[in-house]
Design goal:
With about 300 residues, the chain is mostly helical. The protein is about 70% helix and about 5% strand. A two-stranded antiparallel sheet has the order 1-2.
C-alpha cells in the first residue's frame, strides 16, 4: 500500500507541473480561439532569460547573493515576457482580428520559431542552470504508518506547491475579476465582445502577458529540474494530452487533466511496464488522449460544440 501511495503521490506532483504548462495553452485559446504552438518556445525563452539574468547579475554588480540574483532575474525575465507579449499583439495579433483560426494558428507557429531563434541569438545555446534553492534530497514520510515509509522527492513537492498556488490564483482571476470575465467573453465571441465595448487588443495583451508569466514559472521549475536547454520546448508536447483530456477552454480541466495524466503515467510505468516493455510512461498519455478524442473530443470539461444546419 505504501508503494502504491508513493507512486500516486509522485504522479500528482508531476501532474501539477503538466497542468502549469497546459494552462498556457488554455489561456491563449480562451482569449483568441486558437491553439498556441508557441507555448513551448515561450517556456524556453523565459527560462533562458531568467538563467542568463541570474548569471549576469553577480558578474556586473559584484553582489553574490543567490536570492537577490534570482529575484532580479525573475523580475527581469517577467519584464521581458511582458514586452514580448506587447510586441506580439502590436505587430501580429492586432492585424489578425476576426481572421480564421487557421490564420492565427500559423501566426503562433511563426512566433514559436521567432522566439526560439531570438532566444538563441540573445542568450546563447549552451545548457544553463537555474538554482532557485529547491532542495533536491528525498525524504521519508509516514514511516510509522507504512512499513518502510513513503519516499518523497522534496524538489518535486516544492515545484508542485508552486504550480498549485499559481493555478489557484489564475482560477480566481478568471472567476472573480472583471478582466477575467472579459477574457471569457472574448473567447465566446470576438465580435460580440467588441460590440459591447470590450477592447480586444488590450485583452489579447493581458492574456499573452499572463501566459508569459505562466511560461516563466514553468520554465523556472523545469529549468531547475532538467537544466535550461532547447529540449525544454518539448515540455509543451507533454502538456498536449492534458489539454485534450481536460478541454481546451477549461482552467479546471487543465488541472484535473494534468493530475490524471501524471498519476496514469506513473501507475502504468510501475504496474504495466513489465507487460508491454519499458518506456510506457512516454506514450501512455498520448494513447489516453487518443481514446478521449474518439469518445469525447471536447474533453472532460470542454464545451460541447453543436453545429445546426
Amino acid at each position: 500500500m505504501g508503494f502504491f501511495l508513493e507512486t500516486v503521490l509522485g504522479g500528482l506532483m508531476a501532474g501539477m507541473l503538466y497542468s502549469l504548462v497546459a494552462l498556457g495553452f488554455v489561456l491563449i485559446f480562451k482569449a483568441s480561439g486558437v491553439f498556441n504552438f508557441a507555448q513551448g518556445a515561450m517556456v524556453l525563452f523565459a527560462a533562458l532569460a531568467m538563467a542568463r539574468f541570474a548569471e549576469w547579475f553577480p558578474q556586473y554588480t559584484g553582489i553574490q547573493s543567490v536570492l537577490l540574483a534570482n529575484l532580479v532575474a525573475f523580475a527581469g525575465a517577467g519584464a521581458v515576457m511582458f514586452v514580448a507579449a506587447w510586441i506580439i499583439e502590436r505587430l501580429v495579433l492586432r492585424h489578425l482580428v476576426n481572421q480564421e483560426a487557421a490564420t492565427l494558428l500559423m501566426a503562433t507557429l511563426g512566433i514559436a520559431y521567432f522566439l526560439e531563434g531570438l532566444g538563441q541569438g540573445i542568450f546563447g545555446n549552451d545548457i544553463y542552470k537555474i538554482d532557485i534553492g529547491m532542495p533536491k534530497e528525498p525524504i521519508m514520510a509516514f514511516e510509522s504508518v507504512f512499513d518502510g515509509g513513503i519516499l518523497i522527492n522534496k524538489e518535486d513537492l516544492y515545484a508542485a506547491l508552486i504550480a498549485a498556488v499559481l493555478v489557484a490564483a489564475l482560477s480566481l482571476f478568471f472567476q472573480k475579476t472583471a478582466t477575467g470575465r472579459a477574457l471569457r467573453a472574448v473567447a465566446d465571441d470576438h465580435q460580440a465582445a467588441q460590440s459591447i465595448g470590450i477592447p480586444l487588443n488590450r485583452i489579447w495583451v493581458i492574456v499573452w502577458c499572463v501566459a508569459g508569466v505562466v511560461a516563466l514559472v514553468a520554465g523556472m521549475i523545469w529549468g531547475s529540474k532538467l537544466g535550461v536547454q532547447f529540449s525544454l520546448t518539448t515540455v509543451a508536447l507533454r502538456a498536449l494530452p492534458v489539454v485534450i483530456l481536460g478541454g481546451l477552454t477549461s482552467v479546471p480541466g487543465a488541472i484535473v487533466g494534468g493530475l490524471i495524466i501524471g498519476v496514469g503515467e506513473k501507475l502504468s510505468e510501475v504496474y504495466l511496464g513489465h507487460f508491454v516493455g519499458g518506456g510506457i510512461e512516454i506514450w501512455f498519455a498520448y494513447v489516453l488522449a487518443l481514446g478521449f478524442l474518439l469518445i469525447r473530443p471536447q474533453g472532460l470539461f470542454g464545451e460541447k460544440i453543436i453545429d445546426r444546419v
